[in-house]
Amino acid sequence: NAGRNNVCFYSDLMHFKALGREHMAIQARLANAIHDDTLQVFYQPVVEAGTGEVLAVEALARWQDGQGGWVSPDIFIPMAEKAGMIHELSDRIVTQSLERLHRWRAAGLKQLLMVNISRSQLFSPTFLSLLVEKLLRLGLRPGDVVLEITESVALTDYARQMKHLRQIVDAGFQIAIDDFGTGYSSLSQLHEMPVQFLKVDGSFSQRLHTEDGRGIMQAIVQLGQLLKLDVIVEGVENRETAQYLNEIGVRRMQGFYFSEPVPPNVAELSLRLGV
Ligand code: C2E
Ligand code: CA
Ligand code: CA
Ligand code: CA
């Protein structure tokens, strides 16, 4: 009996170790990609749905792993956080997207750049000053950039986060609460936060075929409007969704229906011509 258990236990362990090795190998390749600056940035337009005009683009990190194909940022961003590589990674992404914005400004384009900020960046004492320095060196202003912070990050350690958010706003940046609706902010917390944009999580756009789903979407949108926030609904995949959102007063949307995240040269066309 003991033997069988042991064998079973052992094989589980082997499996675990194998996974661990694979994980280490991917992590090492990610470290190389960061070091060699081969990560890319794609851009997804945020659209004024009525006109197709593009108000902003969101920078999204992309990694094409030589051995594994495209790896989702939902995998490699947390991996970089755990491995202590997130600062270098973010630095590459931010630098690339700011340089791109610099070119777009030089070409007369006025739209905002939205950048995702991770928990550890927000807590880093040097993050904000380095970012401002980088902007100024490129002749850009903090007002050109919206920092996206997920609702769950904005809410953990609320008092400390409020201090960070204030500093960001004082430096001239705008803030968007990302993935809104998936955390648990209270009305009073949300009311106190110095944010301009609310990005409603895409999962709510996928539930509009049920009455409950539509009710929840309406409640979230009304909440945002009540707090005088600029509401952007994410994950809009088809015309029906866009139409319904328009009916309940949502003007700003993002999603595959308008455009997938695209490389910079394609994004530039949308910035010029709309989607
Ligand atoms: P997010 O910030 O919520 O970004 C939106 C995600 O939804 C993106 O996934 C985008 O490609 C996807 N998406 C856009 N429209 C649609 C749609 O109509 N339907 C569906 N099903 N999905 C849509 P992506 O690019 O895979 O990024 C995943 C997450 O990784 C992001 O979620 C963000 O949290 C994180 N991330 C990406 N780039 C960065 C970065 O540079 N820094 C940090 N800290 N996080 C990043
Ligand atoms: Ca985002
Ligand atoms: Ca989001
Ligand atoms: Ca997300």
Automatic annotation (TrEMBL):
A GO molecular-function annotation: catalytic activity
Boundaries of every EAL domain copy: 23-275
Residues of the full protein shown: 593 to 867 of 871
Protein's name in the database: PAS domain S-box-containing protein/diguanylate cyclase (GGDEF) domain-containing protein
Coiled coil residues, start to end: none
